[in-house]
């Protein structure tokens, strides 16, 4: 039985991905700091084999423990790691606290770095796949989410680098680039704002993509040959614009 380890498995894209992979016969390891959320996700998987692992992705040593525990449960194999845990930090960059800036970098970037570093030996053994959650905000810098955008650019860059570096060892590395997925992260307000991201997206006339579509795209990434996997119309428009309409993208970003 193939096995996938999912960070951020207590909610959102991580939860939906766990449900999909379990339904298709995979063993699932859920990792999160939210133990109640993991329990809720595990309950949705029915009789599928699942283990839960409390993991703060900022803690490199904790990664070793969590992956070793999951490998023990799975008979020694880990076929895919979904580096998905992340947080949203928005609002005026200059008004954002040092602690919030650092936490965003530590979770969204270093959490992915540590997952790739700790997971390498398992993926090399299985000739498996690493999927890293970047964002449409990692396609073109997005005002109002400056530090978040910076971390997602970095995740995308790391993914592209490891795709080249690990290809000869049989490890597939993929980047998931979602736009506005209909999850609870959209209900957060940014620094100096009393408006949620959900309200701002709605006012801009942009779309919300069902979380199940993101989960299916993770499945496609694990089984496909691509490098960048876009999720949502906004992500696809930004991808096109960043390549062929950079002047227009710059004007749009200044509005």
UniProtKB/TrEMBL annotation:
Keyword check for Oxidoreductase: yes
Keywords: Oxidoreductase
Key word Oxidoreductase present: yes
InterPro entries: NAD(P)-bd_dom_sf (IPR036291), SDR_fam (IPR002347)
Gene3D superfamilies (UniProt xref): NAD(P)-binding Rossmann-like Domain (3.40.50.720)
Any Pfam family hit: adh_short
Molecular-function GO term, any one: oxidoreductase activity
Family designation: Belongs to the short-chain dehydrogenases/reductases (SDR) family.
Name of the protein: SDR family oxidoreductase
